Amino acid sequence: MIEHRSHTYGVLGEFENEHQLIAAAQKSRQAGWVSVEGYAPFPVEGLSEALGLKRNKVPLITLIGGLLGGLGGFGFQYWVAAISYPQNIGGRPLYSWPAFIPVTFELTVLGASLSAVFGMLALNGLPQPHHPLFNSDRFAKHATSDKFYLCIEARDPKFSVGEAARFLQGLNAKHVTEVQDD
Q1: Are 39 and 64 within one domain?
Q2: Sign of CA dihedral 16, 20, 21, 24
Q3: What is the pLDDT, as a whole number, of residue 3?
Q4: Residue 54 CA to its chain's centroid (Å)
Q5: pTM to 2 decimals?
Q6: 130 or 107: which carries more pLDDT confidence?
């Protein structure tokens, strides 16, 4: 049924509903599979926990970007006004921090938003014009409409095509497919 080729991305199992998908994800984690992904046509409550996904790092990246943007803007204004090009006009102080607030705020927002976007893209491995799972005709036709999929990826330490296929068939997957990384 499944033949092995050299550029295997993983083995894909098709399920009828979200309950079967969550149960399959939990059983795959219990069986020791670590590189497993679940795909559903709509958000499924509890799928992230069943897959054992780690906490999202985008909020931390956004905070760091915002802090760097704000500190950079404030530091640049201080450097210009007090160090590089000081002007004593009417006896006012060279370092007048209230005047620096609008630019500091704007650069904080800019730094946070840019780091959030680029951090999300980097962590998601984007841009990726074509994902190997779309090499499977069934996945391409049904993944966004009515079927649920669990993929055991070839990068898993205990991966072998035959073992992964037997495991997914044992979970009552309706259809099991080897996915090529071409």
Answers
A1: no
A2: negative
A3: 46
A4: 10
A5: 0.77
A6: 107
